[in-house]
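4.2 Preliminary Data

To establish feasibility before requesting continued support, the project team ran the inverse folding procedure on a target of 301 residues. The structure was first converted into the token representation described in Section 3, and no sequence information of any kind was made available to the design step. The complete token record follows.
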């Protein structure tokens, strides 16, 4: 698959996710809700509908399709996952955390609105994710329950939120490569790994195939963070759409700072190749996921 074909595929999946979220975040009050306050809804839409690669939804949708599942649930799960990711960015950008003014080339939510609104928008996106996940009434309740538990664990104390506190605690301190890898596998890798595990769960994959999908997700999650850290020190704010060199400015421990840019590039490439090897048994069905692993390490933004 050439780059233009893959980018078209990513765009198609991103558009699917965006259109679904746009419809879900309408002014229409859902059953059980009393109202949708306009300012809060506007901030949520600003956080979610402002572009982005939609990589996590892409991985979930493609993994589900690899297991021949193309119904409504993959899109519900992908949208829920993107809500979690976007909520984390809103909170991560706050002055109390990374204190960023720019996200995806636009003012961060707390700059476009205010800090209180940003906090509530993040809170609402977090809970809205589980609303979306549970709202597909055609799905086997056992699968929905499994996905809810998986997403909660990937985003909570043992996953993304736990990784974020380790990241904050590590500022200005020395961490071993193992400690850095653990922190990053929680902060960034957990949601990427969930995307692939969820796609396999939705597709009712057997134990061996679920493990292959999980291994792929774990490896590309690690590769993604390495690529992100490389871009932070080699790219510009204009290209990234967010502040460059912010990790070094804040004294954040990264593998790039620990082992250097070239060693990090080699490690990221090796991780991508190992991830691809985990999908060899799926043949042509895995072509989009295999290409994604290479995109992740070669991307420029």
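Position-by-position output of the design step:
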């Amino acid at each position: 698959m050439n780059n233009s074909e893959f980018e078209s595929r990513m765009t198609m999946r991103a558009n699917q996710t965006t259109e679904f979220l746009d419809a879900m975040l309408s002014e229409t009050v859902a059953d059980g809700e009393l109202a949708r306050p306009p300012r809060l809804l506007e901030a949520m839409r600003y956080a979610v509908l402002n572009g982005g690669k939609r990589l996590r939804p892409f991985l979930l949708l493609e993994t589900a399709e690899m297991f021949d599942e193309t119904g409504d649930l993959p899109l519900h799960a992908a949208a829920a996952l993107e809500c979690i990711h976007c909520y984390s960015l809103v909170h991560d950008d706050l002055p109390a955390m990374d204190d960023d003014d720019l996200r995806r080339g636009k003012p961060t939510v707390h700059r476009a609105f205010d800090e209180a609104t940003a906090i509530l928008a993040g809170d609402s996106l977090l809970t809205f994710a589980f609303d979306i996940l549970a709202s597909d009434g055609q799905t086997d309740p056992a699968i929905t329950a499994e996905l809810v538990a998986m997403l909660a664990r990937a985003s909570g104390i043992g996953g993304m939120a736990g990784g974020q506190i380790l990241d904050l605690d590590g500022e200005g301190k020395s961490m071993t490569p193992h400690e850095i890898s653990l922190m990053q596998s929680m902060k960034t890798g957990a949601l990427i790994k969930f995307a692939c595990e969820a796609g396999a769960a939705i597709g009712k994959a057997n134990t061996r195939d679920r493990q292959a999908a999980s291994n792929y997700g774990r490896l590309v999650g690690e590769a993604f963070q390495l690529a992100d850290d490389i871009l932070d020190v080699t790219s510009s704010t204009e290209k990234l759409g967010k502040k460059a060199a912010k990790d070094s400015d804040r004294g954040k421990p990264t593998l790039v700072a620990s082992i250097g840019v070239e060693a990090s590039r080699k490690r990221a490439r090796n991780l991508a190749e190992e991830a691809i090897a985990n999908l060899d048994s799926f043949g042509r069905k895995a072509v989009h996921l295999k290409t994604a692993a290479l995109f992740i390490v070669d991307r420029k933004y």
